[in-house]
């Protein structure tokens, strides 16, 4: 069973699965035309996946190339059952998706277990596996790393990230005496992980502080994960403030929440502006991010992500400006970026024991 905090999170996360239907049932029925360069139908029928070649991008200084689409681990744990989750994961890999996202706390660990089983039978060697830990102490982080390895059924994780860097105190805790970074560096030396990064969704200022503290400790992060989407661009923007700094430092950027975890479409602000889920995905894909991580809890969700990646042309700068103009009124005050302006997505805030304990 999901924890009380996670259940609240799910109410919004589940909205992503219905995003395409919301647009077709609203803007499309109203007779509105899609923006130039966009396919009118966002989601092929259930079970049908588009065919094409998945674009690959270099993951910063790592020298590794990863798929433009990353498969989000939280929504995998929200699939109707494990069989469906396995089908989605393996179909994604068979259609060129190499980047797998996950986290130690997603769905109380179920996302790890389901993904680990799906990566059997030769699939593990075909992917770049990323997951995250919540621990801020060395002991908690070390225990969560080992738990992740066991649940994912692998002896090495390609990228391990510090999850939810959302408090001003997080950078000092991670890099402090007996902090999580000591466990991450030790795990890397032991061959348990290949690369190290961090994630967060709250404030560009906190991301920049994390990069500054890392520099002060002479530690080069390999990756940083952040929201990059059509709403973020208008207020307190990760794209405008953190993306250039990370890119200049050679830190690979992982884009997340291209659909705002479904919140953008739940009450229809984007539908009214004739902006579809595929537009949102293509907008994020038009950034300098190495990968765009999107949640897929059905084959239709996966088809939509593939459509955006390799069935439609890359969004031009002119198209990006059109989308931004249409989303500016809704994005000006940040009300649709719930991950920034509320605690709705702050799992570690509602479960502070995750920061210094191995127990979910």
Name some characteristics of this structure.
360 residues, alpha/beta, two-stranded antiparallel sheet, 16 helices, 42% helix, 13% strand, globular, disordered N terminus
Number of helices: 16
The total beta strand count reads 10
Sheet/helix structural class? alpha/beta
Mean pLDDT: 86
Q: Report, as a whole number of angstroms, the end-to-end distance.
A: 12 Å
Question: Mind sketching the topology for me?
Answer:
Layout: H1 4-13, H2 19-28, E1 56-58, E2 65-67, E3 69-72, H3 73-76, H4 82-94, E4 99-100, H5 110-118, E5 128-133, H6 138-152, E6 157-162, H7 170-175, H8 180-189, E7 193-199, H9 204-216, E8 223-227, H10 238-248, E9 252-256, H11 263-266, H12 277-285, E10 291-295, H13 299-311, H14 317-331, H15 338-341, H16 347-350
Parallel strand pairs: 3-4, 3-10, 4-5, 5-6, 6-7, 7-8, 8-9, 9-10
Antiparallel strand pairs: 1-2
